[in-house]
Design a protein that fits this description.
Helix content is 0%, strand content 55%. With 114 residues, it is mostly beta strands.
Length: 114
């Protein structure tokens, strides 16, 4: 089993920054990829950013140039640095990790509003 615990969400003004953290534990020997999805109010969950086991990263076009994903293997943590936040970034952000199946974190709320 794999456990994921997210933190770092909150309320921020447009143009502000937040950093989300996801600490993972358990059997991650067959880790394939991990990253972040988000689900805006009333919309489907969408992929925001991912990092592969070899370190390759990808981010969605909607956040490119503003969001950065990184991973600290020693701390067993994946981060999502979010800069220049916009109201449309408001969502519940979910950390995920894929081994042979996909595991999800509990989600953390990010609200961008003045």
């Amino acid at each position: 089993q794999v456990q994921l615990v997210e933190s770092g969400g909150g309320l921020v003004q447009p143009g502000g920054s937040l950093r989300l953290s996801c600490v993972f534990s358990g059997d991650t020997f067959r880790l394939s990829s991990m990253g972040w999805y988000r689900q805006p109010p009333g919309k489907q969950r969408e992929l925001v950013a991912s990092v592969m086991s070899g370190g390759t990263t990808n981010v969605a076009d909607s956040v490119k140039g503003r969001f950065t994903i990184s991973r600290d293997n020693a701390k067993k943590t994946v981060y999502l640095q979010m800069n220049s936040l916009k109201p449309e970034d408001t969502a519940v952000y979910y950390c995920y990790l894929i081994t042979t199946i996909r595991f999800w974190g509990q989600g953390t709320q990010v609200t961008v509003s003045s």
